[in-house]
Design a protein that fits this description.
Blueprint: H1 2-36, H2 44-142, H3 148-160, H4 164-168
Helix pairs in contact: 1-2, 2-3
Amino acid sequence: MQDLNDRLASYLERVRSLEADNQRLEVKIREHLEKKGPQVRDWGHYFKTIEELRSQIFASSVDNARIVLQIDNARLAADDFRVKYETELAMRQSVESDIHGLRKVIDDTNVTRLQLETEIEALKEELLFMKKNHEEASRGHWSGQGLEGQTSLGWGDRQNRPPATCRDV
């Protein structure tokens, strides 16, 4: 931005310098023509037109410099938007990757939960079976029968056998 402002300032200063040089040359030309003699023509009526054209040229030059500055600003803004777009795109891709990974974790967790629920059900069944065996063994004990025959059938078989979920998997 500063570079463009500096260029505009130097351009305007150059235009002023050239205008001053033109005025000095015009004065010298007039003096020379006055010294030369009566053949001098009166160019005065053209000076007004020349000044108007000069002011138009100057205004056009200023407009041109302003437009160049606007173009450079637009180019810088476009670059900023491109960088922002690329940053946002990278962030979006990262978030999508994270979401994909988290969905996989959720799926794995659901599978593990289902396995654990199945194992809980099997353990509940085993607990009921063991309670039932314990009650039968207790009734047998109180009725005068020995526990050895009944406990060896229930408890020993359960210890050597894996849980139901392990057999199913």
